[in-house]
């Protein structure tokens, strides 16, 4: 990618958004300083040690450090004094009410702003309710009257597990600001990405903030729509994979985020949907559809739980194995992971619950008391009465079903992501229960056959 002469940029928050953004901006030729209050994390990042699993990120950060354009500090003062723009990339976790907790956004922006000397562009990358940049502008102006602040909303659309690719080659870049000067600097910052073919959209800051919530709510809606269809397919003996395939072929609908299964999790959809719901309530608009998206998503987990109960009957003293614990493949993030919601239900029902994930075992076990973890898929499956595919890691795609069947006490596979083909599973001798598709049960059919003879 062609570099530019380079602007000085600050990144506040060394997390899932801040680090890929920092690495990408450094690769584009900018001079990037990342600041975070977590001293051990900053120290480790200086040695290119990444605090979470994200493919390609270690290499990108190491490359940035080696180029001399990427550095890390706990001190926000030089970042504020030397940067043309400072990106706020801190978490906006949900409050108990579902509202976004914006304390970290306010605190971290103020911590930088107090050191600003003349003018500073403050860029919100964290997902926030519309109107936040206006509030932030007032808070910053009050906190440091010596400087002037221009606010920009530049929502992040990267996906965990693809964060590096999405940061370097985004499909679109959205930049919202009421300040023409700030828009000019942002365009300069993103010029190599624009030259690379990304769509570049400029709006006011409130519109950009709202667009981010709209995108995530709509993607979650598509997933829940597919999951509701899965329930209807189960009731009508139709096949949800074929139904959503047909839907996805219509360019007006598109194929993405239409896979039925255990539903969505992660640090974005659940919290952003709740925050959007609270926001529209506060604005006085009645939008019950948003609540339905969550209800259907919760049902995706309880429906898989019912399938497990259906095949195993009593769960006490049954070993149920969860294949995959992270909220999606390619990450060790277990926040709001459907696998963990399922694990809690199973533990409460008295099952022995054993999880295996290529990278998320430790985090998952620390989240769910009673969840055991195994070091390998074969250790997990040993003596299992049922396996539940929760996260579609490649390792599970290529699982040798014959050896899996031999290891298990009962050859039963509940496919929470519709990863496998019914015919393959039947050939391997499994009772196979996908989502929104017909189950196959060679074991039971054989028994029925034997009974009828
Ligand atoms: C999501 C959005 O896709 C990004 O555009 C956005 O930037 C990000 O949130 C954010 O706001 O930061 P992410 O949460 O990383 O990204 O993951 P997705 O790939 O969208 O998957 C979210 C969840 O939905 C996962 O649990 C996944 O298993 C589930 N999913 C996804 C389905 O159940 N069905 C699908 O068809 C697609």
Keywords:
disordered C terminus, elongated, six-stranded parallel beta sheet, Rossmann fold, 3 domains, about 15% strand, N-(1-d-carboxylethyl)-l-norvaline Dehydrogenase, domain 2, alpha/beta, binds uridine-5'-diphosphate-glucuronic acid, about 45% helix, about 450 residues
Structure description:
With 453 residues, this protein is of the alpha/beta class. It folds into three domains: 196 residues, Rossmann fold (3-Layer(aba) Sandwich), CATH 3.40.50.720; 83 residues, N-(1-d-carboxylethyl)-l-norvaline Dehydrogenase, domain 2 (Orthogonal Bundle), CATH 1.10.1040.10; 157 residues, Rossmann fold. It is 47% helix and 14% strand. The chain is built from 19 helices and 14 strands. Strand 5, helix 6 and strand 6 form a beta-alpha-beta unit. The C terminus is likely disordered. Bound molecules: uridine-5'-diphosphate-glucuronic acid (UGA).
Briefly say what this structure is.
With 453 residues, this protein is of the alpha/beta class. The chain has helices spanning 18-27, 39-46, 57-67, 76-82, 103-113, 132-143, 163-168, 180-195, 205-236, 240-248, 269-283, 289-312, 338-348, 361-367, 377-381, 394-397, 401-407, 422-427, 442-452, and strands at 8-12, 31-35, 70-73, 85-88, 119-124, 148-153, 172-176, 199-203, 319-323, 352-356, 372-373, 386-389, 412-415, 431-433.
């Amino acid at each position: 990618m062609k570099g530019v002469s380079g602007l000085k940029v600050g990144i506040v928050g060394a997390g899932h958004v801040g680090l890929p953004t920092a690495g990408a901006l450094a690769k584009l030729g900018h001079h990037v300083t990342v600041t975070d209050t977590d001293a051990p994390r900053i120290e480790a990042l200086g040695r290119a040690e990444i605090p979470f699993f994200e493919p390609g990120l270690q290499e990108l950060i190491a490359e940035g450090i080696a180029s001399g354009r990427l550095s890390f500090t706990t001190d926000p003062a030089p970042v504020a004094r030397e940067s043309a723009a400072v990106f706020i990339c801190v978490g906006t976790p949900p409050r108990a009410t579902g509202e976004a907790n914006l304390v970290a956004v306010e605190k971290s922006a103020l911590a930088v702003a107090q050191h600003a000397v003349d003018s500073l562009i403050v860029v919100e990358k964290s997902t926030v309710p519309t109107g936040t940049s206006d509030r932030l502008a007032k808070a910053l102006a009050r906190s440091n009257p010596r400087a002037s602040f221009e606010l920009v909303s530049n929502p992040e659309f990267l996906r965990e597990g693809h964060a590096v690719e999405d940061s370097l080659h985004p499909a679109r870049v959205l930049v919202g600001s009421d300040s023409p000067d700030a828009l000019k600097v942002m365009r300069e910052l993103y010029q190599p990405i624009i030259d690379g073919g990304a769509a570049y959209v400029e709006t006011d800051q409130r519109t950009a903030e709202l667009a981010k919530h709209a995108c995530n709510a709509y993607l979650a809606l598509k997933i829940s729509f597919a999951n509701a269809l899965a329930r209807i397919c189960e009731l009508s003996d139709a096949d949800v994979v074929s139904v959503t395939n047909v839907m996805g072929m219509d360019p007006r609908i598109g194929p993405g985020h239409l896979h039925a299964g255990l539903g969505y999790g992660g640090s974005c959809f659940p919290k952003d949907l709740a925050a959007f719901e609270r926001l529209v309530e506060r604005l006085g608009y009645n939008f019950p559809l948003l609540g339905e998206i969550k209800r259907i998503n919760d049902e995706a987990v309880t429906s898989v739980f019912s399938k497990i109960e259906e095949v195993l009957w009593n769960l006490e003293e049954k070993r149920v194995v969860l294949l995959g614990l992270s909220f999606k493949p390619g990450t060790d993030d277990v926040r709001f992971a459907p696998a963990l919601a399922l694990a809690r239900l199973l533990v409460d029902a008295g099952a022995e619950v054993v999880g295996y994930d290529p990278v998320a075992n430790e985090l998952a076990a620390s989240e769910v008391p009673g969840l055991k973890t195994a070091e390998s898929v074969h250790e997990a499956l040993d003596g299992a009465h049922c396996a539940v595919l929760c996260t579609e890691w490649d390792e599970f795609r290529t699982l040798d079903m014959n050896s899996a069947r031999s290891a298990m006490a009962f050859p039963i596979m509940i496919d929470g992501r519709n990863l496998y083909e019914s015919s393959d599973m039947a050939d391997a001798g499994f009772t196979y229960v996908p989502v929104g598709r017909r189950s196959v049960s060679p074991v039971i059919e054989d028994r029925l056959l034997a009974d009828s003879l």
